């Protein structure tokens, strides 16, 4: 099976080379037969990439320890879920998953991109094939997932225990879905620059890919932060780890790209800027791959490997990013300027949105890469952590979120004079939320008060904007239902996503402002307070799992003498590979989470414990779910995408007619 997988990879590389060369040659010679080969080549590449991935999965499921990465990352005692997810819980397998999804994205363009004219679709698929060539070469030359191990060990080393969790099991595939969605936007951008086809029709075709990528990245980031919250046992949900930042940067770029593509589609403006964002967004995805897999850093969920592999990825980055930016510099001057608009308009609000997102992206980029660059140039090691990011990133988010409430009330080209009346209720809600938090919740921090105001401002603005759709027309409940159904799904998606941002802002603000933490040494039967809740250490006893042993602490939680919950926290010890981990005890309540962690014994009959009361922290992930759901709902709206395909460049290329023949 390993040899079949290896052969499939080599054949996929060969097909991807054909996918690049033959259609490009056909476009140059105006040979429709060669151009038409792009579609079956992309579809064949899908089958071969999936065959390779399926072969590696089979090796993991059957515990074939003659395959090196199976022996290094699996064990016969592992639960089946983690045998499967162990396929991408390592350097080689994760890259194989990457190229399999990349092939699927190209196959989707080939199969469902019938509205594109044949020449332009071939150009897009050729760029997709070129991306695939580099990553297939990287796999086969430096990171062969099917490399054999002799002699064959009787048992494997096992998967990193902190990766043996459902949250992190599905976190990488979600992120990769986002990355490959951005690869399609990149391919569309390069093809459009080569053929000078940047315009509203181009944006209409790119926007669904960007939206799907954004929704997947949102889900992936949410899963990652949720995993960090309950698995690592430190009580937080975001650490500004370089690997976290590597996933956040493409998300910020995709957010800006989507809003810019909307302006281009609706108003034929921001042509050059939108194309540049498409290049930058996927470039950041590849940069994230370099950061995680090059060995330049160590993280709780990075694959620190041979730096020579990092050099190979660096060469790929220089080729793809450098080539695309060079092409942009060469062709951007030939892209026609789009329509003009007033500063106070929906276009103006979206431009401000892009500027703020770009500035936020710049702060994360500098904070993440500057320490790496400094160490590479001087050998000096510095750490850039939460204080820097909180001081630079957060102030940019405040005007951005405030602007999100204003944008939907603005009209295209020029704002109407009813903006103040539309925003009166959201403004009142923001003031009310601020005063309530200050007076009744004992909140004195300025940033917390701003957070509560922003959450109320945006949430009420979303409701007001939706109610505006219902006021157009008369009638009873039946008429109201009809008007609800007539609201475009794109509008519903925007409202859900914006509401999700408001919910997340509230969760972040409330959990940060009102959380209470207690560190204590407790003997059995002793208790400590965290907020209004009393935690009593009821017992500590040994337990065993499929591939670990643990000490499990039971905490009885009461409030004002009334029993609330019994929680368990485990200090686990894995043997394959040897590692100790902490499983936090978490009890969700309607107003927040009870959180308890059993630490080390103090040597005097007591145990170190960390106890938290985290008000409204689940709202962070509720909001993330709403954001991703909003993207999915908007993606199902096909209005505006059924118009003509991307128009041909001038003069009209006869390749389409030849391909049709």
Describe this structure as you would to a colleague.
By secondary structure, the protein is an alpha+beta fold. Among the domains are: 1-159, Up-down Bundle (Four Helix Bundle (Hemerythrin (Met), subunit A)), CATH 1.20.120; 417-513; 516-616. 62% of the residues lie in helices and 12% in strands. It has 21 helices and nine strands. It has helices at 2-29, 32-36, 38-61, 68-73, 80-85, 91-112, 118-142, 166-195, 200-231, 242-267, 271-293, 307-331, 346-378, 386-406, 419-422, 424-440, 446-470, 477-486, 489-514, 618-635, 655-660; strands at 516-522, 527-530, 533-544, 548-559, 562-575, 578-583, 585-589, 592-601, 607-615. Strands 2-3-4-5-6 form a five-stranded antiparallel beta sheet, with no helix packed on it. It has a four-stranded antiparallel beta sheet with strand order 1-9-8-7, with helices on one face. Helix 7 packs across helix 8 (166-195), helix 7 packs antiparallel against helix 12 and helix 16 (424-440) packs antiparallel against helix 17 (446-470). The radius of gyration is 27 Å and the shape is globular.
């Amino acid at each position: 099976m390993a040899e079949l997988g290896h052969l499939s990879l080599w054949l996929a590389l060969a097909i991807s080379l054909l996918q690049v060369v033959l259609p490009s040659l056909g476009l140059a010679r105006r040979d429709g037969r060669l151009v038409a080969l792009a579609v079956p080549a992309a579809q064949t590449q899908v089958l071969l990439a999936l065959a390779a991935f399926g072969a590696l999965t089979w090796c993991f499921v059957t515990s074939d320890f003659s395959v090196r990465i199976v022996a290094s990352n699996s064990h016969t005692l592992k639960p089946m879920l983690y045998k499967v997810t162990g396929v991408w819980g390592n350097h080689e397998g994760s890259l194989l998953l990457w190229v399999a999804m990349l092939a699927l994205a190209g196959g989707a363009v080939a199969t469902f991109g019938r509205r594109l004219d044949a020449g332009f679709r071939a150009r897009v698929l050729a760029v997709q094939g070129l991306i695939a060539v580099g990553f297939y070469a990287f796999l086969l030359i430096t990171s062969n997932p099917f490399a054999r191990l002799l002699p064959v060990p009787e048992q494997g080393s096992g998967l990193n225990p902190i990766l043996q969790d459902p949250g992190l099991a599905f976190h990488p595939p979600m992120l990769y879905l986002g990355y490959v969605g951005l690869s399609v936007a990149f391919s569309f951008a390069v093809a459009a620059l080569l053929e000078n086809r940047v315009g509203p029709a181009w944006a209409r075709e790119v926007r669904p890919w960007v939206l799907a990528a954004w929704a997947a990245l949102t889900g992936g980031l949410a899963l990652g932060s949720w995993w960090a919250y309950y698995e690592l046992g430190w009580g937080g949900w975001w650490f500004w780890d370089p690997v976290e930042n590597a996933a956040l940067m493409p998300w910020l770029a995709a957010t800006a790209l989507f809003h810019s593509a909307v302006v281009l589609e609706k108003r034929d403006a921001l042509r050059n800027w939108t194309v540049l964002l498409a290049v930058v967004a996927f470039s950041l995805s590849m940069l994230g791959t370099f950061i995680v897999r090059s060995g330049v850093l160590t993280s709780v969920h990075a694959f620190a490997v041979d730096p020579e592999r990092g050099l190979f990825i660096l060469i790929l980055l220089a080729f793809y990013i450098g080539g695309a930016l060079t092409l942009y510099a060469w062709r951007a001057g030939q892209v026609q300027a789009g329509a003009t608009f007033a500063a106070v308009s929906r276009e103006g609000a979206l431009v401000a949105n892009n500027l703020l997102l770009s500035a936020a992206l710049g702060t994360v980029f500098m904070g993440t890469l500057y320490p790496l660059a400094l160490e590479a140039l001087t050998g000096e090691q510095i750490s850039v952590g939460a204080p820097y990011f909180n001081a630079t990133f957060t102030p940019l988010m405040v005007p951005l979120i405030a602007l999100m409430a204003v944008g939907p009330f603005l009209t295209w080209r020029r704002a109407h004079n009813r903006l103040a009346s539309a925003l009166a209720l959201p403004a009142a809600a923001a003031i009310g939320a601020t005063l309530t938090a200050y007076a009744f919740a004992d909140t004195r921090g300025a940033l917390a008060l701003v957070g509560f105001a922003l959450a109320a401002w945006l949430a009420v603005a979303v409701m007001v904007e939706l109610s505006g759709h219902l006021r157009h027309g008369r009638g009873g409940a039946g008429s109201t239902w009809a008007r609800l159904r007539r609201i475009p799904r794109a509008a519903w998606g925007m409202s859900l996503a914006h509401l999700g941002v408001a919910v997340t802002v509230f969760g972040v603000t409330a959990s940060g402002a009102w959380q209470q933490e207690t560190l204590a040494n407790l003997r059995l039967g002793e208790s400590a307070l965290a907020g209004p809740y009393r935690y009593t250490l009821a017992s500590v006893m040994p337990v065993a799992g499929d591939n670990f042993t643990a000490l499990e602490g039971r905490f009885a939680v009461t409030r004002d003498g009334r029993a609330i919950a019994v929680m368990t926290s485990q200090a686990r010890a894995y043997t394959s590979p040897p590692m100790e981990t902490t499983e936090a005890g978490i009890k969700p309540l309607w107003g927040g989470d009870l959180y308890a962690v059993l630490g080390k014994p103090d040597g005097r009959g007591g145990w170190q414990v960390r106890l938290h009361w985290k008000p409204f922290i689940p709202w962070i992930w509720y909001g993330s779910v709403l954001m991703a759901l909003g993207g999915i709902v908007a993606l199902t709206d096909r209005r505006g995408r059924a118009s003509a395909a991307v128009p041909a460049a001038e003069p009209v290329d006869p390749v389409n007619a030849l391909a049709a023949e």
